[in-house]
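Run: sequence + magnesium ion -> complex structure.
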Amino acid sequence: MQSYRVRPGEQVRLSAHDPDSTDGFDGKKKKALAATRELTTRLERLQELLYADHRRSVLIVLQAIDAGGKDGTIRHVFEGVNPQGVRVARFGRPTPEESAHDFLWRVHRQTPEKGEITIFNRSHYEEVLVVRVEKLAPRSTWLRHYRQINDFERSLTEEGTLILKFFLHISFDEQRKRLEARLRDRTKYWKFSSADLPERKRWPAYQRAFEEMLEKTSTPYAPWYVIPANRKWFRNLSVSRILVEALDGLQLKWPPLPADFRSTVVP
Ligand code: AMP
Ligand code: MG
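>> structure
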């Protein structure tokens, strides 16, 4: 899984990352589903431990092109987790109030409390993605935001937040299939947005913006992972694995029984 981690300062060519990869699980979807279920169970336990330990928090950032699978990832990876322990924050077009503040204002207030896991469905990274590609702000503005984002994430990390960032990597062809499904399947009509097609036209510009985001903001303290995401089952497995490994690495502890309870007898 380390191979999906973007090393700080590394040059990223998304064309060199195969979105169809099912690394080690080629033709073994059933095995992958079983492995994912096992990880989901471990995640459920780790989330409870995170809450009990109450010293750390976890921030998961999900970014992808439209139809990249952000919603599906959240639905599947957190399937077994206690809803009280996780929170999802979505970031859409800024409201007038949000636009009147610095770009991190609305983001900072959504960061996780101690013991909590927060998932960002889109994030502050839209500032160097849609804002850049759709030219919603001058270049000088979004350029300085890379550094501000790194500074912000560094301070969150120093205060006890574990940050994991996942870029879900799908191909141009896979996006077409998924957008077509939104027009064909009546349970998916609601997902189709009139902005999806103009954005698809700017695919190369978005890929470039994703590459630069990965190059400039994958840090030792808040790494990016490029997840092959054409196969949803493999995407879910990969994200689950990285998450469980990272939570294991926190060395969380069940709080000991306080001294004054040691001789307590329940009457
Ligand atoms: P969805 O996630 O499909 O509900 O769409 C949310 C929309 O909000 C997407 O089109 C994003 O590009 C857009 N969005 C999110 N953050 C920003 C931002 N900072 N500036 C402009 N548009 C944004
Ligand atoms: Mg959308």
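>> summary
The first strand starts at residue 57 and ends at 64. The chain has one domain: 2-249.
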